[in-house]
Specification:
Layout (H helix, E strand, L loop, with lengths): L2 E6 L8 E3 L5 E2 L14 E6 L6 E8 L7 E8 L3 E9 L8 E5 L4 E10 L6 E4 L11 E6 L9 E9 L9 E8 L16 E20 L11 E10 L7 E2 L2 E2 L5 E6 L6 E8 L9
Parallel strand pairs: 8-14
Antiparallel strand pairs: 1-4, 2-3, 2-5, 5-6, 7-9, 9-12, 10-13, 11-12, 13-14, 14-15, 15-19, 16-17, 18-19
């Protein structure tokens, strides 16, 4: 945790008690031998937006009637943009968001920081900007409530008629500057505080069969091999049925083939010692 030291000193005898603007009182723990050498106090405060503002240090001792103002000082806290993703109809943040083929999806990137962050910019994984068009659109919001002293801005990214090819990584970027001189994304490369976050769009697709064994004639006693493949996300589970009934018995052997890097499931059915009952 980063901290800031606040010092307040005055020459007083008897020794003084010190108060900050918040009303917290810090009795001096300085011994009599140190009274003239190091009067005052040092306050260590965690750096949060809760300490932003002008603070007044006051002192009082038995010889004074009212608190005496010793000094005032202003604390400014800067925070780099913190980026979060939310998807429509989802309340929790998730770095792996979901969409369905032929559906629509909207993902919002919110930048939280101080000074006010730039509007988030959406990019493809190759860093090229997302360009609006027939299927892609962007919408920005700068009027989000300030929370705990932090400004919030967002840009929503909508994809319509989602296709499997949209299942990629996307990047959201935002920046802010300590002096607040610029919130122009064109100065992104020279800004003091920059943030970038990546999320993956997981496109779900219903199973689509691509490889089904053709009808063939076999003789009783033959070994029959049938193959079925299907694309889909999540990966489909292939089950074999005859007349909607499961295949039961030691003559039936089902094996699954892995297809690394592909949303493709493959299953092979082997029937040993085929009989007339296997027709269909």
């Amino acid at each position: 945790v980063r901290v800031v030291n606040i010092s307040c000193n005055c020459g007083a005898s008897p020794l003084a008690d010190y108060t900050l603007r918040s009303g917290l009182t810090f009795p001096s723990s300085i011994s009599t031998q140190q009274e003239l050498a190091t009067p005052g106090f040092t306050r260590v405060m965690n750096i949060t937006t809760g300490i932003i503002g002008t603070h007044t240090c006051m002192a009082v001792n038995n010889a004074s009637v009212d608190n005496t103002t010793i000094s005032t000082f202003t604390i400014t806290v800067s925070a780099a943009p913190d980026l979060t993703f939310t998807e429509d109809d989802h309340n929790d943040d998730d770095d792996n968001l979901h969409a369905r083929v032929d559906g629509n999806v909207t993902v919002t990137c919110t930048a939280t920081g101080r000074p006010r962050p730039s509007l988030p910019v959406w990019r493809h994984a190759d860093k090229t900007p997302v360009v609006t068009g027939d299927r892609f659109s962007l919408a920005s919001s700068t009027n989000l409530p300030i929370i705990n002293g932090l400004y919030r801005v967002s840009t929503s990214f909508t994809i319509r008629d989602v296709s499997s090819s949209d299942g990629l990584n996307y990047i959201c970027e935002s920046f802010n500057q300590v002096d607040g001189a610029s919130t122009d994304i064109r100065n992104f490369g020279v800004s003091k505080y920059t943030s970038s976050a990546t999320f993956s769009l997981n496109v779900e697709a219903p199973p689509e069969t691509t490889d089904i064994a053709e009808s063939r004639n076999y003789h009783a006693g033959d070994t029959v091999t049938l193959r079925c493949s299907a694309f889909g996300n999540p990966l489909p589970v292939i089950a074999w049925r005859r007349a909607r009934e499961p295949l039961i018995g030691t003559r039936y052997n089902i094996s699954r083939v892995t297809n690394p890097g592909m949303d493709l499931a493959t299953s092979i059915l082997t029937i040993s010692n085929a009989t007339f009952s296997d027709s269909g």
